[in-house]
């Protein structure tokens, strides 16, 4: 489990904190979702969880980050990276740029962990299969579409077999099929005990995979609970969080003076991205 | 007013990847068109043909009837402004004013008009308060909006926006919907690439589906998202917008937009 205790953070050169004494548990084997309006601090929380803030980008961190029983706040990046990996919004900015094929790109992380060759190959192959990109193995990762690059990055992160996987908007650039593949892969990984922290504006995608949600606003965690508890709240919508599709329609019907129950008139087909039970 | 026409356009990347196959597309002045399709289906490649960043391997692009091959990217930039998918690949200045001013300056807009252009563009994306900030001090969503403002300030007849809503919250998406509506109202052509099919259905008058570099569907949202077209959408890796799914479930016919669901239920 990854734990934040009273974490405050200020970017280098900024005049005020952008996170204020945030406490959050990211339990093993669960997907913890972060929702909130733009600029709330979700990405900052991801940068801290992944170890990039303050180690790589500077800034001032107060408070404690624990990995199970250990305070990892003072760990160097290379040590933390053996346990925690993170994916950012722009996949192109995360490519190693030294790999000429997708296979080498996915193998880059495990190779840098100093693993045996056969294990590196096995991890890369497995991860590529999990996100459904085997057919891209020989392609140049720099020439792929943005969405395909995102899948390559995710496979590379999964090949690291981290205890904690941090994902900032991992499906933003993906089509419905790619989204499903990534979410399935994330669910499978969490099923093997990985703690997943995932920030996402597309709440319907997040709702389909998250076990719980934390609502971030103004640098604070203002609500935590199940997907339904956090999203079915007018205050969440008022903050600018994208409502689920049915919820949006109910709001539209209510605004038009119609009964939202009109949507329940016929039996429900499974929606493309069903919230996990 | 600018009319764009792709005639039998095919494009092969240097590594041999076939990205576009014999694409014919007429884009009349003043139309709003959404390009949809799976990752790697050729959407961004097609968009880059509209402003000359890529040139067809075969076929031609015509701008107001003339072959665009005869015009440089700089000349075409007077007609078509393109906003990239990733702001990181577009933003390079150290302050938001200079970032937005860069495009119009390159187009030769007089210095005394630059300030008004920049302010209007930043206001249009709700970033008036960020004039003079360093782009790196803005959040990801604000940087996305800044990259859109940079293209707005060029005031080209045609705007091409690659995934304009990515990373934006519901308010940001609503802002983009309004912005495109405003541009449409004054006769500008807007082409956008998007995976957000709710946004697409709510905002655009024409939707073009690309699959493996070919145009598979081309029509209004009610046509492209009608139940009869779902198999082709799904073969192409996409899911219809929720309003269409719900409308079909309730037997309302083709309801690509939330408004059309509301109206169908009202008149039931």
Secondary-structure class of chain A: alpha/beta
Helix and strand element order of chain B: EEEHEEHEHHHEHEHEEHHHH
- The strands making up the biggest β-sheet of chain B line up spatially as 6-7-8-3-9-10
Query: Class by helix and strand content of chain B?
Result: alpha/beta
Terminal CA distance of chain A: 22 Å
Tell me the total number of β-strands of chain B. 10
Spans of chain A of at least 5 consecutive residues whose pLDDT stays below 50 are none
Structure notes:
The complex is a heterodimer of chains A (277) and B (268). Chain A has helices at 42-49, 52-55, 77-80, 102-112, 117-131, 146-159, 176-191, 203-207, 227-231, 234-238, 245-255, and strands spanning 2-10, 19-26, 31-35, 60-67, 70-71, 84-87, 164-168, 195-199, 212-217, 220-225. By secondary structure, chain A is an alpha/beta fold. Chain A has a 6-stranded mixed sheet, sandwiched between helices. A 4-stranded antiparallel sheet of chain A has the order 2-1-4-5, covered by helices on one side. In chain A, helix 7 links the parallel strand 7 (164-168) and strand 8. The longest helix of chain A is centred in the middle third of the chain and has 16 residues, at 176-191. In chain B, 37% of the residues lie in helices and 22% in strands. Chain B has helices at residues 43-50, 73-76, 96-106, 111-124, 140-152, 170-185, 197-203, 221-224, 230-235, 242-249, 258-266, and strands at residues 4-12, 18-27, 32-37, 58-63, 66-67, 80-83, 158-162, 189-193, 206-211, 214-219. The longest helix of chain B has 16 residues, at 170-185.
Which structural traits does this protein have?
heterodimer, A: 277 residues, alpha/beta, six-stranded mixed sheet, four-stranded antiparallel sheet, 11 helices, 10 strands, 35% helix, globular, B: 268 residues, 22% strand
Question: What are the SSEs and their pairings?
Answer:
The complex is a heterodimer of chains A (277) and B (268).
Chain A: E1 2-10, E2 19-26, E3 31-35, H1 42-49, H2 52-55, E4 60-67, E5 70-71, H3 77-80, E6 84-87, H4 102-112, H5 117-131, H6 146-159, E7 164-168, H7 176-191, E8 195-199, H8 203-207, E9 212-217, E10 220-225, H9 227-231, H10 234-238, H11 245-255
Parallel strand pairs in A: 3-8, 3-9, 6-7, 7-8
Antiparallel strand pairs in A: 1-2, 1-4, 4-5, 9-10
Helix pairs in contact in A: 4-5, 4-6, 5-6
Chain B: E1 4-12, E2 18-27, E3 32-37, H1 43-50, E4 58-63, E5 66-67, H2 73-76, E6 80-83, H3 96-106, H4 111-124, H5 140-152, E7 158-162, H6 170-185, E8 189-193, H7 197-203, E9 206-211, E10 214-219, H8 221-224, H9 230-235, H10 242-249, H11 258-266
Parallel strand pairs in B: 3-8, 3-9, 6-7, 7-8
Antiparallel strand pairs in B: 1-2, 1-4, 4-5, 9-10
């Amino acid at each position: 489990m990854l734990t934040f205790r009273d974490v405050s953070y200020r970017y280098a050169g900024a005049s005020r904190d952008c996170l204020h004494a945030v406490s959050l548990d990211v339990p093993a084997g669960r997907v913890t979702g972060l929702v909130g309006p733009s600029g709330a601090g979700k990405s900052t929380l991801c940068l801290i969880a992944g170890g990039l803030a303050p180690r790589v980008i500077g800034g001032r961190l107060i408070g404690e980050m624990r990995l199970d029983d250990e305070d990892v706040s003072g760990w160097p990046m290379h040590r933390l990276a053996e346990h925690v990996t993170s994916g950012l919004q722009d996949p192109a900015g995360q490519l190693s740029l030294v790999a000429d094929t997708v296979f080498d790109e996915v193998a880059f992380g495990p190779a840098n962990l100093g693993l045996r060759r056969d294990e590196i190959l096995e991890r890369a192959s497995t991860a590529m299969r999990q996100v459904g990109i085997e057919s891209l193995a020989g392609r140049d990762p720099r020439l792929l579409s943005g969405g395909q690059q995102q899948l390559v990055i995710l496979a590379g992160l999964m090949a690291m077999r981290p205890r904690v996987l941090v994902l900032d908007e991992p499906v933003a650039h993906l089509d419905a099929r790619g989204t499903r593949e990534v979410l399935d892969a994330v669910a499978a990984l969490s099923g093997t005990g990985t703690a997943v922290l995932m920030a996402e504006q597309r709440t319907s995608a997040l709702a389909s995979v998250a076990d719980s949600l934390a609502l971030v606003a103004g640098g604070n965690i203002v609500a935590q609970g199940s997907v339904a508890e956090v999203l079915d709240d007018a205050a969440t919508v008022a903050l600018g969080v994208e409502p689920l599709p049915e919820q949006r329609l109910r709001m539209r019907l209510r605004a038009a003076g119609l009964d939202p129950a009109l949507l329940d008139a016929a039996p429900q087909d499974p929606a493309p991205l069903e919230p996990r039970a | 007013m600018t009319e764009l026409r792709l005639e039998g356009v095919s494009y092969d990347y240097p590594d041999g990847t076939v990205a576009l196959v014999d694409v014919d597309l007429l884009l009349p002045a003043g139309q709003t068109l959404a390009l949809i399709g799976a990752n790697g289906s050729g959407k961004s490649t097609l968009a880059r043909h509209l402003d000359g960043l890529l040139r067809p391997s075969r076929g031609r692009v015509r701008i107001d009837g003339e072959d665009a091959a005869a015009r440089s990217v700089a000349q075409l930039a007077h007609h078509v402004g393109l906003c990239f998918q990733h702001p990181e690949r577009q933003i390079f200045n150290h302050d938001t004013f200079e970032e937005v001013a860069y495009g119009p300056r390159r187009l030769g807009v007089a210095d005394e008009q630059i300030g008004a252009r920049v302010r209007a563009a930043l206001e249009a994306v709700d970033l008036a308060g960020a004039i003079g900030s360093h782009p790196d001090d803005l959040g990801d969503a604000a940087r996305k909006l800044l990259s859109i403002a940079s293209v707005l300030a060029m005031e080209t007849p045609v705007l091409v926006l690659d995934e304009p809503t990515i990373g934006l919250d519901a308010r940001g998406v609503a802002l983009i919907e309004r912005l495109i509506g405003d541009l449409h109202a004054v006769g500008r052509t807007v082409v956008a690439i998007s995976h957000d099919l709710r946004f697409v259905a709510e905002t655009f008058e024409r939707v073009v589906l690309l699959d493996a570099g070919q145009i598979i569907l081309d029509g209004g949202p009610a046509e492209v998202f009608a139940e009869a077209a779902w198999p082709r959408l799904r073969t192409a890796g996409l899911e219809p917008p929720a309003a269409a799914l719900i409308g079909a479930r309730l037997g309302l016919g083709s309801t690509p937009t939330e408004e059309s669901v509301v109206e169908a239920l009202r008149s039931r």
